[in-house]
């Protein structure tokens, strides 16, 4: 849950506005997670001018990627990794007058190189993910650049170096995740009055340090995931009246600390995943009526607690993975008629519980992975005619169940790994015209079933790990679907 990504702010600065598909709600490998939110996967487009084509070719030779403006003519973003900046690369980058985003992952450079890059007047977003930085580098960043976004995640940044950025009042986004920044370093942020996005994932901060953030009156997105904070410092966070997204996943926070959040009247996303919270916390959460996304995955809440959330009429995304919910508890989901994404994986629900989902007709994403769902229960999903993503992996469904799944002709992503489906069941999916992602790992599917899969012309990813399909059969099938990424490994007897 975190995309990934909290790239929404980055992209809005670039005048690109894709939907924030999957915030990084559960940063620990879960189906909710968005892909790596620490970098942007830049899409390649065909260049239409000679300078762009030359630059694109050079970047590709370095193993990097480029991003074009919507016109497809101008390079606005570049991502390279594991390279050493030299004069040739500097000349190439300085020759791109519209370059706005530069990601230098695990890249080696000197302070002089950074000074050269600062001459690119259009450059507003710089990400130095996993780079080794010196104090001189930080000094150049502070005095020579005019940035909206600065990414320093997974670098060797120290508190003393961060203090060099204390006067960068034009910064709107700052990523300090996976650094050793402590409470002392947070003092450097006091004057960053325009800061809207701050990522402090897995740093060395404590509750005491959170008081240094209460002056950030413009802050809209704050990530405190994986920090050793117990909630005493949340009183300071409660003063951030403009906050829209707050991530507290895998911290030490319990019920008592959450009460400080009731003043966040503009909060739209709250991640409380993997916390030792109980139903009593939901008294406070029920007051946050602007919430659209809520994660309670891995917490100690029950169905009784869900009743306290019936005031959240704007809720669109609800993540309840690995909670103690049972069939009858799902009746409390009925008030959430705007719900589009629901994760019930690793809960104790069975077929009988699915009848309570029939009224959630706006659901587009449903995760039932690793539950005791079987074929008969799938009939209750018939009214969900907007469903485009369905996780049924690690359940007991079989070919009979796929007959029901095939009724959902709008499905684009279907996860069936570790189920009892076989070749016969795949025939029931032929009415799904826009199937793009299909996982069949550890199933009874053989090469005979590939005949049915071949009909899905829009397939982009097909996973066949540990199946009875041989390497040669998979290679032949890859030739039949050249635009599809086929992931395969043969089951060894």
Automatic annotation (TrEMBL):
<dbReference type="InterPro" id="IPR032675">
    <property type="entry name" value="LRR_dom_sf"/>
</dbReference>
<dbReference type="Pfam" id="PF23598">
    <property type="entry name" value="LRR_14"/>
</dbReference>
<dbReference type="InterPro" id="IPR006553">
    <property type="entry name" value="Leu-rich_rpt_Cys-con_subtyp"/>
</dbReference>
<dbReference type="Pfam" id="PF13516">
    <property type="entry name" value="LRR_6"/>
</dbReference>
<protein>
    <submittedName>
        <fullName>Internalin-A</fullName>
    </submittedName>
</protein>
<dbReference type="GO" id="GO:0019005">
    <property type="term" value="C:SCF ubiquitin ligase complex"/>
</dbReference>
<feature type="domain" description="Disease resistance R13L4/SHOC-2-like LRR">
    <location>
        <begin position="160"/>
        <end position="347"/>
    </location>
</feature>
<keyword id="KW-0677">Repeat</keyword>
<dbReference type="InterPro" id="IPR055414">
    <property type="entry name" value="LRR_R13L4/SHOC2-like"/>
</dbReference>
<dbReference type="GO" id="GO:0031146">
    <property type="term" value="P:SCF-dependent proteasomal ubiquitin-dependent protein catabolic process"/>
</dbReference>
<dbReference type="InterPro" id="IPR001611">
    <property type="entry name" value="Leu-rich_rpt"/>
</dbReference>
């Amino acid at each position: 849950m975190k995309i990934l990504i909290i790239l929404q702010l980055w992209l809005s600065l670039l005048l690109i506005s894709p939907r924030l598909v999957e915030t990084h709600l559960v940063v620990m490998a879960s189906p909710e997670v968005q892909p790596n939110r620490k970098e942007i996967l830049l899409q390649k487009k065909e260049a239409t001018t000679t300078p762009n084509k030359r630059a694109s070719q050079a970047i590709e030779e370095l193993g990097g990627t480029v991003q074009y403006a919507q016109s497809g003519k101008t390079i606005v973003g570049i991502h390279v990794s594991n390279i050493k900046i030299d004069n040739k690369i500097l000349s190439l980058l300085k020759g791109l007058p519209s370059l706005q985003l530069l990601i230098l992952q695990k890249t080696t450079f000197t302070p002089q190189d950074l000074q050269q890059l600062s001459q690119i007047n259009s450059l507003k977003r710089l990400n130095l993910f996993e780079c080794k930085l010196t104090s001189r580098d930080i000094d150049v960043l502070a005095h020579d650049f005019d940035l909206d976004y600065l990414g320093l995640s997974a670098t060797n940044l120290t508190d003393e170096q961060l203090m060099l950025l204390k006067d960068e009042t034009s910064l709107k986004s700052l990523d300090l995740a996976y650094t050793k920044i402590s409470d002392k370093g947070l003092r450097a942020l006091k004057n960053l009055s325009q800061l809207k996005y701050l990522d402090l994932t897995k740093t060395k901060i404590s509750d005491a340090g959170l008081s240094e953030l209460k002056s950030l009156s413009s802050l809209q997105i704050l990530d405190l995931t994986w920090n050793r904070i117990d909630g005493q410092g949340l009183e300071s966070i409660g003063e951030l009246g403009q906050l829209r997204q707050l991530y507290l996943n895998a911290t030490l926070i319990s019920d008592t600390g959450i009460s400080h959040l009731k003043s966040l009247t503009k909060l739209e996303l709250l991640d409380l995943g993997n916390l030792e919270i109980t139903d009593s916390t939901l008294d406070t959460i029920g007051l946050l009526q602007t919430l659209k996304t809520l994660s309670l995955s891995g917490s100690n809440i029950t169905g009784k607690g869900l009743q306290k959330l019936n005031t959240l009429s704007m809720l669109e995304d609800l993540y309840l993975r690995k909670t103690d919910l049972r069939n009858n508890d799902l009746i409390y989901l009925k008030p959430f008629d705007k719900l589009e994404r629901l994760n019930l994986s690793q809960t104790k629900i069975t077929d009988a519980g699915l009848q309570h989902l029939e009224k959630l007709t706006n659901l587009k994403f449903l995760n039932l992975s690793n539950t005791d769902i079987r074929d008969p229960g799938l009939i209750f999903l018939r009214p969900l005619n907007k469903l485009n993503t369905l996780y049924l992996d690690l359940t007991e469904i079989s070919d009979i169940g796929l007959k029901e799944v095939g009724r959902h002709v709008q499905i684009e992503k279907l996860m069936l790994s570790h189920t009892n489906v076989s070749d016969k069941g795949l025939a029931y999916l032929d009415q799904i015209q826009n199937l793009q992602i299909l996982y069949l790992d550890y199933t009874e599917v053989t090469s005979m079933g590939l005949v049915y899969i071949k009909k899905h012309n829009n397939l982009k990813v097909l996973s066949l790990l540990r199946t009875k399909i041989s390497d040669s059969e998979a290679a032949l099938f890859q030739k039949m679907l050249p635009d599809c990424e086929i992931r395969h490994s043969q089951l060894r007897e």
